[in-house]
Amino acid sequence: MQASSRWRSGAVVLAGLGVVSVAGCGGRGDAALPAAPPRASAEVIEDPLVTSVRSTLRKDAEVTRQVRIALLQDAGVSRFDIDVITLTGRTSLVGVVDHRHQADRAIKLASAVDGVLAVRDELSVKPD
């Protein structure tokens, strides 16, 4: 296939996608591009998979919130900056504590929260 026919077939594909080439149009190449087609601002998707994912994300956000509350209400671990991440009911605790027993306490508190399926310990203990 020659270069000119390859270019033409590429131009046809691009034209089919609504892309306009400005090469050779007035020499400066500053021709205005066509406006993008209007998009729906808040499209409602009635796909069961999307609904399921949204529901899972809401549940995970609530589980994360409840774990954070449990950690903040416990005097033994509330002073530590522990990040809580929940994905499909599996909660990770990330941060630094002074002693191993504080990490164990944080894990126990997180495990007791309704909706937590598993707790991943990513807590580090400060070196002495």
Could you explain the architecture of this structure?
This protein is α+β, with helices and mostly antiparallel strands. The protein is built from three helices and three strands, in the order ααββαβ. The protein has helices at 3-16, 48-73, 100-111; strands at 82-87, 90-97, 118-125. The longest helix is centred in the middle third of the chain and has 26 residues, at 48-73. Residues 3-27 have low confidence and may be disordered.
Strand order of the largest sheet: 1-2-3
Helix content: 40-55%
Query: How is the main sheet built?
Result: 3 strands, mixed
Low-confidence stretches: 3-27
The number of helices is: 3
Shape from CA axes?
elongated
Strand pairing plus helix content: what structural class? alpha+beta
Instruction: Give the helices and strands as they follow along the chain.
Output: HHEEHE
Question: What is the arithmetic mean of pLDDT?
Answer: 78
Distance between the termini: 71 Å
- DSSP strand content: 15-25%
DSSP, total strands: 3
Oligomer status = single chain
Radius of gyration: 27 Å
